[in-house]
User: Fold these one by one.
Assistant:
Number 1:
Amino acid sequence: SVDWNNTKTPVSKRAGFQVMVIGAGMSGILAAIKLQEAGISFTVLEKNKAIGGTWYKNTYPGCRVDIMSHLYCYSFEPLLSCPHFFPTQDFMRQYFTDCSHKYKIAPHIRLGHTVTAMKWEEDRQEWEVGVTLPDGQTEIRRCNAVINATGQLHHPAIPDIPGMASFAGPCFHTADYNQELDLSGKRVGVIGTGSSGIQVATALSGSVKELLIFQRTPHWATPVDVYQEEVPQGKHDAMQHIPYYSNWYRLLLFWRMADGMNHYLVKDPAWKSKDESVNAFNGILRSYLIRHMKKETDSDPALITRIVPDYPPYGKRMLIDNDWYKTLSSPHVTLISGGVREMVPNGLVDQQGETHSVDAIILATGFKPFHPPFSVTGRAGITLLDAWGGAAQYSPRAYLGITMPGFPNYFMTYGPNTNVGTTFSIITISEFQVRYIITCMKEMLENDYSAIEPLQTAYAAYNAKVDAQLEKLVWNHPKVNSWYNSWPGKRSATNLPFSIADYRQLLLQPDMAAFIKYYGKS
Ligand code: N01
């Protein structure tokens, strides 16, 4: 859990210190709540018409959290009222909206405000932020510090499939789901079989006439016996009335879903010479997952050979089986392996050249992680894009996943190398980060620093440790291409290579010796 005590005492010095939080999703709302408690002035800029981030944008049928509600919530606001073990999208959106009201941060959120560019003004020791307002006008806003809470995954990856424009029916991404469209009784094509793909396909399978699922590469999925289930009344009551029950339950889930899984992530040292080589734990897990596939598909050998991945479990994000395998075995569902060769006016052509006619196409093709939504220019005119290798060698990095040399008072939540590679709640990671960021700000205010930025040496030393640890883990398997490793050298710029307990330890107290401090305006 997160001890918020040290960020709760309001700071008194430096009236006028202003923080701009970008994004009113899970991390932005969290940052706002904690800034408010610390007595630091802030504004939240949100480009959407409502708050919720991911849980506002993603409204496709079947969209829900694949992490248990008891973990997928703020530690200070347990989600005890959720009727399901795995909360639905609308439930999560309501939770974050309720939190924004309960903690009185809603008045600080500016909806429909899109940040277009940001520039560090050395003379003023401030960030200059270009914003497009809801009426289309633009203006410049200034602040002392920025918390970029836009996350890793919000820019849809639209595939470049030949003939895409020729398709006559509706074709849209899961993050832009067309709610007006009634797909019941239609032939629907779904491209992609990651977390979004299996959720939308399974949910639609009950109402469409025919479902054609285009799987480029199989993903692993783990069974969870309570996926569709409601939390039983007894557990509900225990959570609410037995002292500390919910804390213990969270601890149990934490162990099962987080660091208790870490041994699966370590690759066999002999790996590079053997395509399917996995460590002993991973080998046992692999057999278990294949047994599960067989059970769910009535051991259909033709199907099994097409859905068993040729890389170790956890190489890509582990899916939670939401009746996905059962869906694949339904008579009106067809799995087409190998991806899509082209789109034609009436449908899709597979890699074997066969045309499949469909009425609508859903692109469950994922997101472009860290796709820069706006340009960020730090000291000496260096942009974040340049600092991360430029367009050709783009590979985000940060000191502790939060700050960057050359970008004073620029803080990130869910930044580079902070995504968890197990199915654990990213909310806990954001809590560690927000606590760290606010502690840094308190240090600044109490010591009258106008700005801080990490030393290049601290940044380099931390990233050397990140790289050394990444080398040992499964995400850069030669057969894995995923949003985890879509950077030069297949290095994962998204994932946290350390245990969650170790990362927490690193963020407990900022090492101010690792920062350059600036005093006042030059
Ligand atoms: O995206 P993905 P996602 N032609 O990148 C395929 C979180 N999330 O939106 O594997 C054909 O995982 C691609 O194929 P391949 C979660 O962290 C959480 O599903 O590259 N296919 C793959 O199958 C998750 O990991 C929840 O060969 C193409 C799929 O599209 C992350 O978001 C729910 C293609 C993309 O899978 C991303 O998940 C949903 C092409 N041109 C998402 N391009 C929760 O429940 C891509 N694909 C919390």
Number 2:
Amino acid sequence: MQESVQQRVILRLAVPVPLRRLFDYLPPEGLSPELLQPGQRLWVPFAGRKLVAVLLEIVQESPHTGLKPALGLVDSQVLFGHDSRKLLAWIADYYQAPLGEVYATALPVALRKGKPADHWAEQWLQLTIEGKGLPESALARAPKQQALLQVLLRDGKQSRTHLKTLGHNPTAIRALQDRGLVEWESGPTVPSPLPAAERAPVPELNSEQQQVLEAIDGSCFSASLLEGTTGSGKTEVYLRLIQQVLDSGRQALLLVPEIGLTPQTLRRITSRFPTRSIAALHSGLADGERAQSWLAAAGGQADIVIGTRSVIMTPLPRLGVVIVDEEHDASFKQQDGVRYSARDLAVVLGRNANVPVLLGSATPSLETLHNALSGRYQHLRMRHRAGDAKPPQIHVVPTLREPLEEGFSPQVLRHIGDTLMRGEQALVFINRRGFAPALSCDDCGWLADCPHCSSKLTMHRRQRQLRCHHCDYRRPLVDSCPQCHSHSISALGGGTERSEELLARRFGEYPVIRVDRDTTASKQALDKLLAPAREGKPCLLLGTQMLAKGHHLPRVTLVVIQDADGGLFSADFRAPERTGQLLEQVAGRAGRGSLSGRVLVQSRFPEHPLLQLLLEKGYGAFARQLLRDRAVAQLPPVNAMALLRAECEEPRWAEEFLHNARLFMQSLVPPSPQIQYLGPVPALLERKSGRFRFYLQVTAQSRAQLQPLLARVCAWAEGNKNRRLRWAVDMDAQEL
Ligand code: ADP
Ligand code: ZN
Ligand code: ZN
């Protein structure tokens, strides 16, 4: 006789609150527990509110009493499969983040707020079993049906919207349906990032590209650094890898930096894979579009998923490869909330899914380079430019004691003029936007400061404003000193706006295109702005680092770097690395076509050994030297480093909190050669938006020593009752 055992069903959920624990609930009343599965979203009551939580486990016992029932399922869909839950748990653990917040970060806003997934459902056309058995040449007598059949055979199922943009008509679809070869099914839409483009010609691979592709085994995990000169054809390698993965019926994930996801990049991908469903995920999307793309990725409908940082948390059930383009880019690190590095997570994701991971850059981060040089990652290199482009020639132009005109040496201005006259294009890189980074009174020395930050206000002349670039505080430009009423006020230093004025005056017969955050509110605006440059007419481009990446402008033969010195003397130990990357990337814009390129680098300190090394031997040698320096100083990536951050309107409280944290940690692990403490010290930008910021730095010879200590200090800090003080752990922090 069978005994009926009364089993309790308890739901263990990730609830979006800043507490490092899970919460137990009873199943929703009236809902059969068989309908519940890990990875689903549920509505739960929490402290008088109704929140969207994610079911992680169904258990039989709970250490807690007085459990409340959950309110109900948001929908029946399992959004987070097993692999995805594993990655998110790893993130919470490694970055010391509350798991509920990790899930909230992974979900697009609309789904986080509880919109059901089928809100965006649409119809997908797929082959039936009979359809799948047909040869490509079947139906030769009905060309429209045959074309459609070929797309479905070659590239898999297609959404109704996508079929429309591809130009397939409903009559052909119905005819195939009547023959029992195709059928409709419901699934999420993938809004195409761009209208389907013409299939672009595929270049023959050169031998370096071929070797790289042969070194990557598509069938299992490996992590590789592709260190390839700018213009060496890395993107072509990515496209081939993606092709292989699509051919094997799997999804490709491509991560790009924030300013790298331009219409130009998307065009290159859509034109190579016009019949594939491509989901693009980036911050420029409306909530609904973002949710749709996310669901298409998570449901497996999207073949190619391309996105910025947060795309790394999107579940991908058929993942076949992870590619990170410009892996050194700082935008892969999230600087608030869950402070993860998408580039590092790419490797974790690839390992979990047992698929290859490729990190590509002309200027690899020291972290990745260290992993490659120590043998943890495979080190692949491409040293030559693809096609017939040659590497540019680099010259330093000393600027100390030179008669500069708005920051430009006469020699540089002459070269710009010559370039334009030859019908070619010049690009001028200036690291600061606005007219001038400071405004000062000549008589009493008054400086325009931000009232909320420890920084100067930048003068924007066209808008007649002074603006803080840290908190966006704005005030009208003054024409007399607020302190002594003198009218002799000077703009100190230069920015893009100031240079634009000079260059437009000097070279007014050519288009002068300024590219910075003030002129390009959107990616589309940038695309439009660059149109004359793409057409190949002689023109002058000037701008900030937005110009350093991703743009392939074959008629640019001269690149000018107005000031190479900024990063060489910063208090941030990462500044030389970033400067080196930026200079090499900007220089890499020169001579990408058949015309040869020249780079002019203005510097007040042309003898600086790091600058010399960079300009003479290139970024590779420069980065290896920096790595040796970091090892000596016991800094990352050789040592592991985490910051405990605190910020507060009252500086004393932040400092005191960190001081106590240090005492607490030292009582657990006293300082030693293995673990070292520094601080509390003020952040480089000490005051931001009215709050004083401090950090405590903990370095360790290994992460294994650091992790348990961080977990303990988080538990300690959660007991902090000062509501006006904000604190965070920043593992592998990128900013000081
Ligand atoms: P990277 O991503 O390394 O900067 P790209 O992939 O953008 O380089 O390639 C630079 C240029 O060279 C592009 O115009 C690209 O079309 C071209 N290219 C890439 N691979 C080849 C090849 N094998 N043969 C000819 N041209 C190529
Ligand atoms: Zn004054
Ligand atoms: Zn400010």
